[in-house]
Design a protein that fits this description.
mainly alpha, disordered C terminus, 2% strand, globular, two-stranded antiparallel ribbon
Length: 451
């Protein structure tokens, strides 16, 4: 049944023709990315495995570049992205040959270039920001609700139901912590699920803010309003993942995003920066003490895992140095005995893509944060300020979380989509379909609060 994957490509084509390109992104690509496990794929001749989301993004990317390439404004982030993609391809070429290099290039186009382009070219078109955010939040709410069964009963509904059509693919193993299953949903692992729920939780609070100020809030179960219910559901998903890295990343994302709602933005920003510096120093000191010692001396499995991650950094230093500028490639790089799992995206990039891959990735993160700060500074409406800082919080939270996990499954496309989105942020023209009038806080001169 592997060709079933191509149904998302067909649906994307139909929606593009009958509705619009943006509808295809929101109604086909996003559900394919967030609901269906990435490893259910089809293998076409001379191409890497193509999953549902990759199949959907092919026609979307073709039409997007055909219709909107003229709108592309060249920015520094584009240069870092190009170096990142070409560096990854060259790493495979010099280590593993031309066939693996071609596979890597195609994979990078599907998971890096096209999501970045969607964020940059489409998501800030008039009215699309809110539609995309709402769909993102609602889909993740569905995932969180369905994951209650996994959390309590230990059966992943996504791999169980969808897996019936792909008998050759085996679901991943469940992990238990504190007597409860660590929820993975359709995201391959509980830590990756935590990273994605992190992004959904922050976006849900922005969507709730839009509901409140536009008068479109609705009541649901037990009289709870949508503006309260959706953040609670997404927060529950984050908690059920039971992953400390994403929890810490979510805390950072929250304090950054909340600056956008503060009455005194400048004062709150200063307090937040001071708080993050103090908390970061205390956390770093505690982590050093917590991981000081050998794995045999660890008192808990969690401490053993933390020591393992710290030892990764030391043990892989010689391999990184031998890899040089472009690393060892991703197919068959040297591994330290007993440490095959590289639970750190920044370390993994240094090993597989070398210094070029690592620094271009870091520069993409820096460019994103600069773009978010500049968008917040020039915002004249509260809703734009809050969204820019919410996006900045999401990116900061993801980057922090990736120091504890690799950027696998759906986290890769989502990260680069958010990076592309950060490069296109602009002031809202049509605030919301239900309430196009300006928000009262639009009179505030937000660009002065950072002066």
């Amino acid at each position: 049944m592997d060709p079933l994957v191509l149904i998302s490509m067909v649906l994307a084509i139909v929606v593009i023709k009958r509705q619009s390109l943006n509808d295809a992104v929101i109604k086909v690509y996003l559900p394919s990315l967030l609901i269906i496990p990435e490893f259910y794929s089809v293998r076409l001749p001379h191409l890497p495995p193509i999953g549902f989301a990759a199949a959907a993004i092919i026609p979307i990317g073709f039409v997007m570049f055909k219709n909107h390439l003229r709108d592309w404004k060249v920015q520094r982030a584009d240069f870092w992205l190009a170096l990142f993609v070409l560096g990854a391809t060259y790493s495979e070429l010099i280590r593993d040959g031309s066939s693996d290099a071609v596979f890597m290039l195609v994979e990078q186009i599907f998971s890096v270039v096209l999501p970045y382009a969607i964020g940059k070219l489409l998501l800030e078109q008039d009215g699309i920001r809110e539609r995309f955010a709402r769909q993102f939040v609602l889909l993740l709410a569905v995932v969180a609700i369905l994951s209650l069964w996994e959390f309590r009963m230990g059966t992943n509904l996504f791999t169980t139901i969808i897996g019936m059509f792909f008998p050759a693919h085996h679901a991943w193993l469940m992990q238990i912590r504190g007597g409860w299953i660590r929820v993975a949903g359709p995201y391959a692992s509980c830590i990756l699920a935590g990273v994605i729920f992190l992004a959904g939780w922050i976006l849900s609070m922005w969507v709730s803010y839009v509901d409140k100020i536009s008068g479109t809030d609705k009541k649901y179960w037990f009289g709870l309003r949508r503006s309260l219910l959706l953040p609670l559901i997404l927060f529950a998903g984050l908690i059920m993942a039971q992953s400390r890295g994403p929890w810490i990343g979510a805390a950072l994302a929250f304090v950054v995003a909340r600056i956008g709602k503060a009455k005194n933005v400048r004062r709150t920003a200063i307090v937040t920066i001071c708080f993050c510096c103090i908390a970061g120093g205390i956390g770093y000191s505690y982590a050093n003490r917590y991981t000081d010692g050998s794995m045999a001396e660890a008192k808990t499995i969690e401490q053993e895992n933390a020591i393992y991650r710290r030892q990764l950094l030391d043990n892989y230093k010689p391999i990184i140095e031998q890899g040089g500028l472009f690393g060892w490639g991703s197919v068959d790089f040297p591994k330290v005995p007993g440490q095959n799992s590289i639970d750190n995206e920044f370390l993994l990039l240094q090993i597989t893509q070398g210094k070029v891959g690592f620094w271009t990735y870091v520069l993409l993160g820096i460019e994103s944060m600069i773009a978010v700060f500049m968008a917040a500074r020039r915002a004249t409406q509260r809703v734009d300020l809050y969204f820019a800082l919410s996006l900045g919080g999401i990116l900061a939270g993801i980057l922090l979380s990736l120091s504890t996990v690799y950027m696998g499954a759906q986290t890769g496309p989502l990260f680069f989509l958010f990076v592309g989105w950060s490069q296109s942020l602009r002031q809202t023209q049509t605030f919301t379909a239900a309430a196009p009038q300006a928000v009262p806080t639009a009179r505030f001169a937000f660009r002065r609060v950072f002066a």
